[in-house]
Amino acid sequence: MTGRAVRTTCAYCGVGCGVSATVTGERTVTIKGDAGHRANFGRLCSKGTHLGETVGLEGRLLTPEVFGRQAGWDEALDLVATRLRDCIEQHGPDSVAFYVSGQLLTEDYYVANKLMKGFIGSGNIDTNSRLCMASAVAAHNRAFGEDIVPCTYDDLEAADLVLLVGSNTAWCHPVLWQRLERAREQHGTKLVVIDPRRTETAEQADLHVPVAPDGDVALFNSLLAEMQARGLLDADYLAEHVNVPEDFWAGLTGDHGIAPDTFRSLADLVAAHPKMVTMFSMGANQSVSGTDKGNAIINLHLATGRINRLGAGPFSITGQPNAMGGREAGGLANMLACHLGFSKAERADVAAFWQTDRLCTGPGLKAVEMFQAIHEGRIKFVWVMATNPAVSLPDAGFVREALARCETVVVSEASADTDTTRLAHVLLPALAWGEKDGTVTNSERLVSRQRPLFDPPGESLADWQIMSAVARRLGWGDDFAWDSVAGIFREYAAMTALAGRHGKVLDLTDKAQLDDAGFDLMEPFQWGGAFPLANGYATPDRRARLVTVQAPEPAAANPDFPFRLNNGRYRDQWHTMTRTGWSATLSQHRREPLLEVHPADAAARGLTAGGLARIVTAQGSAVYRVALSDGQRRGDLFVPMHWTDVTAGGGRTNRLPGQGVDPVSGQPGYKNTPAQVEPLKPEWRAFLVSREIAAFEGLIWWARSRVAGGWLCELAGDGACDIARMLPDGARIEAADHVRGMRRVAVQDETGALLAALFVTRSGELPPREWVAAQLAQSAASPIELLAGRASTPAPDRGPIVCICHGVGENEIAACGAGTVAEVGEATQAGTNCGSCRPAIARLLAGLELVEAAE
Ligand SMILES: Nc1nc2c(c(=O)[nH]1)N[C@H]1C(S)=C(S)[C@@H](COP(=O)(O)OP(=O)(O)OC[C@H]3O[C@@H](n4cnc5c(=O)[nH]c(N)nc54)[C@H](O)[C@@H]3O)O[C@H]1N2
Ligand SMILES: Nc1nc2c(c(=O)[nH]1)N[C@H]1C(S)=C(S)[C@@H](COP(=O)(O)OP(=O)(O)OC[C@H]3O[C@@H](n4cnc5c(=O)[nH]c(N)nc54)[C@H](O)[C@@H]3O)O[C@H]1N2
Ligand code: SF4
Ligand SMILES: [Mo]
Fold first, then answer.
1. Average pLDDT over residues 246-256
2. Is 793 exposed, middle or buried (0-12, 13-18, 19+ CB in 10 A)?
3. Contact 706 CB / ligand 2 (< 6 Å)
4. Pairwise CA distance, residues 673 & 620, whole Å
5. Which of 76, 116, 512, 846 could form a disulfide with 64 if both were Cys (CB 3.0 to 4.6 A apart)?
6. pLDDT confidence bin for 854, thresholds 50/70/90
7. Neighbour tally for 57: CB within 10 Å
């Protein structure tokens, strides 16, 4: 395949950027943005740019495994089919479940849904989009009658005002952010960020509204009341297109707690700019009031007529590359397929289309309920595909218990070692990005092709192939008989005709006749067009609905857990790090999970910058390094979601949140958990750089990060430090200072190349890590230098790396004398490639510090 140029779609976020890949070797590729793709017009963020570093086979699952030993496909699939059949026969179809993912392609999703709902006959298939988009889906259904996103990226560029609600766009949807940045430069778009934290996104805004956790419903209700008071409702639009519940206007209450000046500035901006887009993501959705937040936002747009025209609308942006495709194809337990529900007429149509008499009769269990049912033994067989629930579900300790009790846990994975594969009975190797073939739908309903770059590695198969092989073993071979992904796509596209029959907008029927070659060449296309709801809403009377929503009761003060724990994402890591964690370049941005806390709270709790702290909630505890940040509200804590038992000891965030969900959508309220925090004073701290992955036990805390040629691990513990015993064989050099409890050990191979280096201290400082780590990939530092932890004639200290593409550090940016981000780019190249670090450069220029681990 070498030399081949392939147009495909990025593996990561819901922006859905087009990628131009050129295959340069068996497992190597150069990555560029696809200039012809309308999601990104050639741009890629840091994660997309460095996709090439994540396609190696290190860490991949390449053969099936059964009860911890390698097995052939036949043995593994026979076992899965037998267990499934036995379970269904003995305990009924609802005793089995699939837990799937927005990282499956639409065709995989289609097959999973058809198998579970259509043939096994249970609704028990849910997707990790439950953790992500379910509240937005429910809000769309309530307001529009269908899960329709009424905006496109063009709206974002045409708007005069953009509100971002609970979205750290600069980090999580960076190419959309860049499109917005450019629109702001070109026509002065105003930007408001509504987020309890002052993120890098918020720092760039015209106005940051530091809303209290879950204060959004009160805020949007108050904004709408304010628009009404100012006479800015669109009475004509309301009369013609919107049903308003009785007492709706009287119900617009709620104490938003925003400073009056800030609220007035926000209301003035909203009043002055009818061309307004409100973009929302996890700060809105991941809440026990998530659906109400979505509807509070949509209410404002409907009541002011700010929808269905260029530059205006409520815009829920998707997280995963195919979160949207899963919503379309039926990945959620409470929808059937193609946006259809479970009414008699809808079920009859679906049953006829699939030619099945086994169609499930109603919705299945949503993710959190599903794992509760596993815990209770009501579900005895679970098949997890393309997600890592032992890390990513809330109250992950409970989830692990559930998996450990379950009779059969099947995991289809691309990675060999994840917290979830460690709990599996059967492991099935799946194709990953760069190998798999099919379609994804992005945030703006744009369907794009993912195309293979490489041959399938090892014995891995596409998820749809694995499921079809099981379906055949269960006797449904004729219904799962596709020999190509194009055939599945055609069947799915044809099925969307049912949506139209029930008044829905979703419609891909014009693609149902594509032949295989046509599917191969299929260009990105957008279903629903620019204004999918302009010709009427998907309700029986074709009118939208305002929904009465009430601000949640403030939680009673709890002296045991006085803080509120928030969490989310880092710019350059993706979820549970099973891919981005392998990239040395991406790992430079933040190497460890940090606890961001306001300096005054830190002082009150005895926390120090660079020290360790333990967060405790009703569910569990986790350990982090402390970073002080006045971007945090008093009383709020922020930690990242990414680290796992594979990559850290102690820093696994989802031990902390509880199982509380939004009552309408079933989405967990991850972002607001009562918590306590306390300092931890380990007796020793250390770091280890090593070629090979090391595993640690009995430490208070550790975290692992990829560097060129190996790994960098931060460690802390009590008692004796016996890490030195784990070092590899080789020429060992050593220095110790027993008074200060310092020990330094380096191991070189016969050529003098570094194999490992360990630095331990009980009271003193540890040297900067980056130079030591860099020696893994460089030739021969002298033993004296290695033990000193620095070169004898040190190169100028670049400081922490800010621009990962060009390797430009903080000190270089400070020294270059430039006053603007553009000038910094000219002087140092920083920020001129993918652009993801531009908000960080702006932050430095504004005299603010980057949040980072200090010692
Ligand atoms: N770098 C990176 N990008 C990603 C991902 C990734 O893992 N890494 N994952 C992708 C996925 S699947 C998703 S879902 C998206 C998520 O994208 P985002 O939603 O932007 O990401 P988060 O960091 O989870 O949360 C966003 C913000 O919500 C704020 N927030 C917390 N509570 C509240 C509240 O009560 N009200 C309001 N208004 N805000 C609140 C948090 O402070 C946080 O800054 O990112 C996608 N893109
Ligand atoms: N505390 C906290 N927790 C959260 C969130 C939060 O904001 N805070 N966000 C939630 C959200 S929005 C999301 S989307 C989830 C994400 O959480 P997860 O879905 O658990 O995270 P990933 O690490 O993306 O897991 C995907 C897995 O699928 C594997 N994989 C990749 N491609 C394929 C494939 O094609 N086939 C198969 N079979 N496997 C594949 C990868 O190796 C990886 O192990 O986390 C949720 N959890
Ligand atoms: S914004 Fe970044 S992560 Fe998201 S699709 Fe584009 S390149 Fe990929
Ligand atoms: Mo997500």
1. 91
2. exposed
3. no
4. 11
5. 76
6. low
7. 12
What is the rounded end-to-end Cα distance, in angstroms, of the chain? 48
Residue 851 has pLDDT above 90, yes or no: no
Q: Which ligand is nearest to the CA of 103?
A: 2
Whether residue 576 is predicted with pLDDT greater than 80 in this model: the reply is: yes
Tokens for 590? 């933040």
What crossing angle do the helices spanning 106-113 and 485-495 adopt, rounded to 10°? Answer: 70
DSSP label at 35? T
CA 373 to chain centre: 25
Q: Which helix (H) or strand (E) holds 9?
A: strand 5-9
The H or E element containing residue 771 is helix 769-774
Residue with CA nearest ligand 3 atom 2: 45
Residue type for position 472? R
Cβ–Cβ under 8 Å, residues 165 and 322: no
> What is the value of pTM for the model shown?
0.97
- Residue 855: the pLDDT is 55
Nearest to 140 by CA among 496, 552, 668, 545: 545
Regarding the beta carbon of 465 and ligand 2, being less than 6 Å apart is answered no
Mean pLDDT over residues 685-695, rounded?
94
| Alpha-carbon gap, residue 362 to 289, rounded angstroms | 25
Give phi and psi for 300, each to the nearest 5: -60, -40
Ligand in closest contact with the CA of 574? 1
Which atom of ligand 1 lies nearest, measured to the CA of 165? 38
Tell me, in angstroms, the distance from the centre of ligand 3 to residue 11's CA: 8
> Got the DSSP string for 190-254?
EEEEE-SS--HHHHTSSEEE-PPTT-HHHHHHHHHHHHHHTT-S-HHHHHHHEE--TTTGGG---
What distance in angstroms lies between residue 143's CA and the mean position of ligand 4's atoms?
Answer: 22
Token pair of 173 as six digits: 């949807």
Contacts of 821 (CB under 8 A, 6+ apart): 831, 838, 841, 842, 845
8 lines ligand 1 (CB under 6 A): no
- pLDDT digits 0-9 by tens, 226-246: 999 999 999 999 999 999 999
**Ligand 3 centre from 373 Cα, in Å?**
36
The conformational region for residue 577 under phi > 0 = left, psi -120 to 50 = alpha, else beta, is left
Q: How far is the CA of 114 from the centre of ligand 2 (A)?
A: 22
Atom of ligand 1 nearest to the CA of 574: 7
Q: How far apart are CA 79 and CA 77, in angstroms?
A: 5
Beta carbon of 40 within 6 Å of any ligand 2 atom: no
- Regarding the beta carbon of 166 and ligand 1, being less than 6 Å apart is answered yes
**Nearest residue CA, atom 9 of ligand 1?**
319
Q: What is the dihedral of CA 79, 83, 86, 90, to 10 degrees?
A: 170
Ligand 2 lined by 646 (C-beta under 6 Å): no
Collapsing DSSP states into helix, strand and coil, what is residue 729?
A: coil
Hey, what's the torsion of the CAs at 28, 34, 39, 40, to 10 degrees? Answer: 90
Smallest-distance ligand from the CA of 316: 1
Measured in Å, residue 388 CA sits from the centre of ligand 2 at 5
Tally helices (H) and strands (E) across the chain.
29, 35
Give 639's strand partners: 567
Q: What are phi and psi of 328, to 5 degrees?
A: -75, -45
d(CA 250, CA 440): 43
Q: Quick check: 741 and 759 in contact, CB under 8 A?
A: no
Statement: residue 853 has pLDDT above 70: no
- Hey, whose CA ends up nearest to atom 6 of ligand 3? 17
Looking at ligand 1, which residue's alpha carbon is closest to its atom 7? 574
Ligand 3 atom closest to Cα of residue 48: 7
Distance 15 CA to ligand 1 centre (A): 14
15 lines ligand 1 (CB under 6 A): no
What are the tokens at 189?
């778009």
Region 687-694 average pLDDT: 95
Query: Residue 718 and residue 312: Cα distance in Å, rounded?
Result: 57
Ligand 2, atom 25: closest residue by C-alpha: 387
